[in-house]
């Protein structure tokens, strides 16, 4: 594969991995408007975020083995077709019940993007090259939570909430076309038994028992939970409590996303020069400091008191993800789809659980958000230090 082909592939995979982030961030500025549109409670609209995550997380466990058995391309095409149909259903919803059902289906379809994207990186690159690819993906992926609320805010002001989901129909269509036109099959050897119930239990059981896999995933998984806790709470803090307009709220994401992009960029520059475990530990420290600052500064609700700590938190998240993802997936060349699926499932499950809890205990301040982020950062640090920090060499690859 030439350098130009590698760059083109990495850009396509970035767009696929970003599918979930785009699908959640684009409609965030419209969440208060949805409460009025459907004449419902804010908690139900808040749970549309969680319901999307339930479908997005659980279905990844299906897409991974399917792609190991049938190949990456056909599974991705099927997921994109479902995503496009569900996005259109969201735009046409006339009740909160219909909207929630459509969001569930949208999450199920969107799950194909990141599962296949990460698996193709594992198929196509050696470990250090994969870490660099994940660092680039992380840097570029930071544009999704920045541009999502920014574009969504203007769409809400100019055209109303339905326009966000019409936009997602177009995004899904573009991904489908690019997958058909540009993505070649990368699975090294199809496993005809990958979807058998016994093999599923064996593969996922082996992953959950793999200390290096779980340990390297821990800081990213729990950091992801803190990120999505913020994403699902921020519109109610900034729009409802502080009275910001949706388009102004959308522009604020530029600050937090710059933190994430900086962390991912620096992680990529460190690759091959600084040991992976050092980069991961630096990221864990930044995650913890950002979360504690959010809690300590929450007595008064202002934009800087929320944005500042969050920038530090996502900077740490950006540092952690490239090396930890590459090290977690490296030992599994033949079951990269399943390993990628379990990673996504754990990330989104923690994120969905965090946003669900916050939808119940949210008190109109950033205090509960800060507490949740602090607890999640502590669990990520503990998982890494207990399971993975003792060695720099991954465990032996699967036979």
Descriptive report:
The chain has helices at residues 3-17, 19-25, 31-37, 42-70, 72-91, 96-110, 112-124, 127-141, 143-159, 162-182, 197-209, 211-241, 246-270, 276-296, 303-329, 336-361, 367-387. It has 399 residues and is an all-alpha fold. The chain has a single domain (3-387), classed as MFS general substrate transporter like domains (Growth Hormone, Chain: A, Up-down Bundle), CATH 1.20.1250. Helix 1 runs antiparallel to helix 7 and helix 4 runs parallel beside helix 6. The longest helix has 31 residues, at 211-241.
Question: How are the secondary structure elements laid out?
Answer:
Layout: H1 3-17, H2 19-25, H3 31-37, H4 42-70, H5 72-91, H6 96-110, H7 112-124, H8 127-141, H9 143-159, H10 162-182, H11 197-209, H12 211-241, H13 246-270, H14 276-296, H15 303-329, H16 336-361, H17 367-387
Report the CATH superfamily.
MFS general substrate transporter like domains
Q: What is the number of helices?
A: 17
- Quickly count the domains: 1
Annotated CATH topology: Growth Hormone, Chain: A
**Structural shape:** globular
Strand content: under 5%
Elements, N to C (H/E) = HHHHHHHHHHHHHHHHH
How many DSSP-defined strands?
A: 0
The CATH architecture term is Up-down Bundle
Highest-level CATH class:
Mainly Alpha
First-to-last CA distance: 26 Å
Describe the largest sheet.
Answer: none
Structural class comes to mainly alpha
Average pLDDT across residues? Answer: 83
- Residue share in helix: over 70%
Low-pLDDT residue spans: 391-399
- Radius of gyration equals 20 Å
């Amino acid at each position: 594969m030439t350098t130009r082909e590698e760059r083109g592939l990495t850009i396509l995979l970035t767009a696929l991995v970003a599918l979930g982030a785009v699908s959640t961030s684009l409609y965030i500025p419209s969440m208060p408007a949805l409460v009025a549109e459907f004449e419902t409670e804010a908690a139900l609209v808040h749970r549309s975020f969680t319901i999307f995550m339930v479908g997005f997380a659980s279905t990844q466990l299906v897409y991974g083995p399917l792609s190991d058995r049938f190949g990456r391309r056909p599974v991705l095409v099927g997921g994109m077709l479902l995503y496009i149909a569900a996005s259109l259903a969201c735009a046409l919803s006339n009740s909160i019940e219909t909207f929630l059902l459509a969001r569930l289906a949208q999450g199920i379809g969107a799950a194909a993007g990141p599962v296949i994207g990460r698996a193709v990186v594992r198929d196509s690159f050696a470990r250090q090259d994969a870490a660099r690819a994940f660092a680039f993906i992380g840097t570029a992926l930071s544009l999704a939570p920045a541009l999502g609320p920014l574009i969504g805010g203007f769409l809400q002001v100019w055209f109303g909430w339905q326009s966000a989901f019409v936009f997602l129909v177009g995004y899904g269509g573009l991904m489908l076309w690019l997958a058909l036109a540009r993505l070649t099959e990368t699975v090294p050897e199809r496993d005809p038994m990958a979807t058998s119930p016994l093999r599923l239990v064996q593969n996922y059981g082996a992953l959950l028992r793999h200390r290096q896999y779980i340990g390297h995933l821990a800081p990213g998984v729990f950091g992801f939970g803190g990120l999505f806790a913020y994403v699902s709470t921020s519109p109610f803090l900034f729009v409802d409590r502080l009275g910001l307009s949706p388009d102004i709220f959308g522009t604020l994401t530029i600050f937090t996303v710059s933190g994430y992009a900086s962390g991912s960029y620096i992680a990529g520059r460190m690759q091959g020069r600084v040991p992976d475990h050092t980069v991961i530990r630096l990221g864990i420290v930044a995650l913890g400091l950002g979360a504690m600052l959010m809690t300590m500064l929450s007595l008064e609700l202002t934009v800087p008191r929320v944005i500042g700590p969050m920038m530090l938190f996502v900077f740490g998240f950006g540092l952690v993800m490239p090396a930890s993802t590459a090290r977690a997936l490296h030992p599994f060349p033949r079951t990269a789809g399943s390993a990628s699926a379990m990673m996504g499932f754990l990330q989104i499950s923690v994120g969905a659980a965090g946003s669900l809890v916050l939808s119940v205990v949210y008190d109109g301040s950033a205090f509960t958000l800060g507490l949740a982020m602090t607890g999640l950062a502590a669990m990520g640090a503990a998982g890494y230090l207990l399971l993975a920090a003792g060695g720099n060499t991954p465990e032996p690859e699967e036979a």
